[in-house]
Specification:
There is one protein chain. It contains 26 helices and eight strands. By secondary structure, it is mostly helical. The protein has a domain at 617-714 and 782-790. The strands form two sheets. The protein has a six-stranded mixed sheet with strand order 3-7-8-6-4-5, with helices on both faces. Strands 1-2 form a two-stranded antiparallel sheet. Helix 5 packs antiparallel against helix 7 (187-199) and helix 20 (515-554) packs across helix 21 (571-601). The longest helix has 40 residues, at 515-554. The chain is globular, with a radius of gyration of 30 Å. The N and C termini lie far apart (66 Å).
Length: 797
Amino acid sequence: MDAAYSGDEGNGDRGTLVDAQEMEDDVNLSVEEVESPHQLVLMTPSHDEKLVEAPQTPVYKPPLRERILNWAPFWGIILLGGILRFWGLGDKPLHHDESLHAYFSLQLMHNMENWLGCFNPAASCYHYDPLLHGPFQFHFIALVYKISQLVGAPDNGVNTTTVRILAATLGTVIVGLPYFLRDYLGKWGAWLACFLLAVSPSLVYFSRFAREDIYMACFTLLLVVSVARYIRDRKMRWLLLAALAFSLSYATKEATFLTVAVFGSFFGALVVWELGLRWPVRAKLNRDTAPWYIPRTAAPIVLLLYFIVLGLVAKFFFGWLKALSIYVTDPKNTTASDLFVQGLKDRTVEIVPWVGILLGCYVLFILGREMFGHFPSAGRHGLAARVDPERQPVLDTVVTMPWTHWFFAVLVGWTIFLVLFTVLFTNIKNGIGDGIWQGLYYWIQQQQVARGGQPWYYYLLLIPLYEQIGVVFALVGIIRSLVRPTRFRLFLVYWFVGNLFIYSWAAEKMPWLSIHITMPMMLLGAVGLEPIVVTVVNLVKNSLSRTSSAKLLARGGAVNMPAGRPRLRPQVTGFAAVIGMIIAVLLLLPTVHNMYEVAYVHAADGPHEMMVYVQTTTDVNIVMAKIDALDQKMDNGKHLLRIGMMNDATWPFVWYLRDYTNVCLNYPDNCAYPASSYSVIIAGGDNLYNSEAQYAGPGKNYLFSQYHMRTWWDEGYKPPPCVPTRTDKCTDQPTWGGVGVGLWLSYGDNPPPGAKFNFGLAAQHIWQWWWQRRAIGDTGGSYDMGLFIQKGLGETP
């Protein structure tokens, strides 16, 4: 059902390939078709006559009724996505990472209120630190704070809601972006993609979470949309938007390097394919005697060679990267590694201005030529004359790109880089070098750290637990994309499989990283669902039309049947579509239920949600309520209460106690007042029981209560720990772990001796978790804190 779809953007029928039979099913369906197994066709406008945009005077035209009706379903889904992301946004306590982002964004806002002072190198202003990831979120969360202050938001505009507004906003933008892919996915396919992204449990949850991954996901999808539209439309605005998206992604998180690896390798495959189309193979042989497997052109052959070479290079590169990570994290090599990276940064800062000067001279040279009348002649010349714009659209895009397009794209990208990494130009020298090299250096170091210690199959367990409709119909979408391939469909397959592989390979595996796999998976799910939905819709339309016609005939009227009226598909196809729709609805139910549970019911309940990773509990709110009540009683809410905070309780309490002026960090050392004068002490972790004995034991001055600061999901699914033997020293293997995913699903984290995987028990446990949130393993994992309040203050901890 892949009739070509001509979008609503005024493109007409340029470059579309229309299958008349498919048009009978749904004129809005859309997508590129394959002429042969060896020739993929991308719908791209031909630019034989005109390679540079002619200036056009914008003329406002009120939207037609038909266009408004086309927009309405998408706006409805965007509204749904916005409600799901903004409803009760500040209810959940701030996660450890969120508190860091919230606090340093607040510091940046204060820095920018004294912007000129931050030009002083001695000033302690915010600078980019890859430990906290890119500078984008700090600048824009600070901007949200400032706007919230100006509009009179509670807590002077700084609270758990405002810190998450940026995440919820960009999460909602993700929902709407597939609208611009209607030419590639079809109208129904694009709408389904919006819907699946809107209700995805992981995307909803992390759109309500002030971490950088949802920002990066938004910019990645914006990059995909922009490049796809630029290849089709050749409008400069799309290339500028692509440059904007890439720069913002780079300024958000170092994982953009992984995006470059996946997208870059696919781009290389497209270029190799298109180059191979120029070399006929089968035509040079006797068509009657040539074997059936001989392709028309060399494209499949060179593509196979490309992936063989790419695989060998990737294997070598990953091995080298692992060795490099081991080297730079070895304490013996740390100093030398730091000096080497610092040298790279210094040389980069020296080179960048010269690169800018050379680029400026080149642009002035081109402008000078055009000023003296040396305009490019009409038609295709040079490399452009050797490229077929219909069969080689990517190469055609590259070789016919006007210089103004790439120049302004580079300008946009570098401007964003400079503004964000230099922190509004207050740290130009260090910001440029750090922005280019420090993030990469940190990322290489983290490959050896391997935060989380998760197994390779982590995402294969996590994602199916939550994303039922996405997983099943993404598989359908993959099959459809391979059976009826288009370039864009194959890109989605490559993007999904590539991200699944590379994020499973990467040392750090965390729930928030799953959204980079889930997002392309949902787009593939839309590809799989589209023919089912369209067939059912047409069946309903035809049924209603037939019913109304029968009633008209019964009253003695005449029925005029339009010549182009859609026909019903064969009954078996309609039956299969109805069955597929029923399956989709049944899979949608647990998906939506999971979304509701993880985003609203158990958002701060780690033991019952695998998606919730070491989350701050609501006990933090209880502790803060007691501290605020005591401050109100003693100092009329002026935040003068003396509070001692031990090291193990620093985050998130640095954020929550931001307005208190007499807080001693690292209590009882280096405090401004005698340790015994502090009305409240907060302890945590390993110090808790020793602290209780020291401050709240018999004859001591404090009352004590214990709370959960953070809780987590049972990790019995990890492989059993490696036990060193004479032959196996467990090199590079963890000596701790779980019982294995099969036994864990069957029996939890404490299986009986000699137990084997039991499919029935595993299915029962998953079912009970889906609908009752009955935890599969242990629920006791927690990191505790203690609240001490001086006796005689009239407040109990």
